[in-house]
Amino acid sequence: MSDPIATCLAGALSPELAIAQCLLQGDSPATLGTRVQRARTDTAAWYALDRICADTDRIARLQHMIAVAGVEHAAPRDPGSIALLFDRAVAVSPEASVALYSLGDPARLDLATSEVIEWLVSETWLRPGMDVLDLGCGIGRLIPATAQVARSVIGLDVSAGMIAEARHRCAGLPNLRLEVGSGRDLAGIADRSLDLVLAVDSLPYVVQAGLADVLAAEIARALRPRGAWVILNLAYDCAPDAEKATIAAWCDRFHFAPRRLGVTPFRHWDARGFVVERLD
User: Fold this and answer.
1) Residue that terminates a domain, selected from 39, 54, 69
2) Alpha-carbon distance 100 to 66, whole Å?
3) Number of domains in the chain
4) H helices present in 150-210, as ranges
5) Partners of 228 in beta bridges
6) What single-letter DSSP state applies at residue 78?
7) Does residue 17 fall inside a structural domain?
8) Structural domain contains residue 63
9) C-alpha to C-alpha distance for 231 and 176, rounded to whole angstroms
10) What integer pLDDT is reported at residue 1 of this predicted model?
């Protein structure tokens, strides 16, 4: 298991991501503080780590959220248990429930979210007049900016708690539909009705549930020709070659063409990005 603190101090991981990874590895606030002190260097990264650890109430709240939700990325889960995980997590910290590296801070989450939107627009995956599905929309962090550009947006999530939070945050948007989904299909979404499907840190849970191939077929059904499926994180703890093999298999089976494979375009998040386009 890699040491997130050492990786951060080597310049390969942001302080926020390093702290989040330590918490997922089971560090307590006290243990985390000790690890950071032992690794002390006269660098900006170390001082950033130290400042984060000094906010012991925040670190304890994040640890509590992980424990209450039962976050475990390795064990197989069904969609119902994943929904329960996120119902519990969003009740403790809405921001951290969708991005632990935000450390529960709305400003940090907004910064990371803006990077995603800017990349989607600059790469022209998100364009005016599109019909968009945000698959695993969580608290709806991408939706306000997406809805400003798109003709329509559907936000789908297995967690009723997440959808309730998204409805609160996105109230008043006229071109938005938010629904609790089964996690097993895209029931209620018509064939060839979408121009863009976003899966922003949601596919790892679909993979965990063993339903990735099923969802890939459903997305192929729902996308129009030349429609794009943008995946930011395909699976956790998966080798890059295995990720690319999965994408290649989906392209063969479901008539996609690969457009981006394993890109890492963000400063504030270490997500690996994949984009496939629906062929005619």
Assistant:
1) 54
2) 9
3) 2
4) 160-169, 203-208
5) 196, 277
6) -
7) yes
8) no
9) 21
10) 63
Q: Does residue 100 lie in a domain region?
A: no
Task: Domain of residue 46: give its range.
Answer: 1-54
Q: How far apart are CA 218 and CA 209, in angstroms?
A: 16
Distances (CA, A) of 140 to 112, 137, 165, 190: 14, 5, 8, 22
The pTM score is 0.96
Last residue of a domain, one of 11, 32, 54: 54
Indicate whether 120 and 201 sit together in one domain.
yes
Contact (CB, 8 A) for 36 and 46: yes
Task: Note the pLDDT tens digit of each residue in 104-161.
Answer: 999 999 999 999 999 999 999 999 999 999 999 999 999 999 999 999 999 999 999 9
119 residue type, one letter: W
- Give the phi and the psi of residue 71 in degrees, each rounded to 5: -65, 125
Six-digit token string for 100: 């632990």
Closest CA to 189 of 157, 218, 151, 152: 218
**Torsion angle, CA of 140/146/148/153, rounded to 10 degrees?**
-80
Q: State the CATH number of the domain containing residue 206.
A: 3.40.50.150
One domain for residues 121 and 44:
no
Q: Which two tokens stand for residue 222?
A: 């729902």
Pairing of strands 223-232, 152-157: unpaired
